[in-house]
Design brief:
The protein has 97 residues and is mainly α. 58% of the residues lie in helices and 0% in strands. The termini are far apart.
Length: 97
């Protein structure tokens, strides 16, 4: 308990402090993101936002009316899955054009 701590290393001179700040500033600028990437990111975010708003605007009338019913007629596989059986004369792995 009687031992004294040496805090002299925490006391930084003004010149040394300015040098440390300059070193940190140089390091941060060296790692900074290129402005082109920032522009791409901003444009991508704007595009994503516009797409989400368009999707919301397209689906909002159905959501507000509440009359939309799910349809299984989009694909025969969905109908077979809903019925729980696959017709025997159908090969699911067959590729047709």
């Amino acid at each position: 308990m009687g031992e004294r701590f040496d805090f002299s290393s925490l006391s930084v001179s003004s010149a040394r402090f300015e040098q440390l700040v300059a070193q940190v500033t140089v390091a941060v600028r060296a790692r900074a993101v290129h402005p082109v990437w920032l522009a791409v990111r901003r444009a991508g975010l704007a595009t994503l936002t516009v797409g989400a708003l368009l999707a919301l605007a397209a689906w909002a009338p159905e959501w507000l009316r509440g009359t939309a019913e799910p349809s299984l007629s989009a694909h025969p596989v969905a109908e077979w899955a809903a019925q729980g059986e696959v017709p025997v004369d159908v090969d699911l792995l067959e590729v047709t054009r």
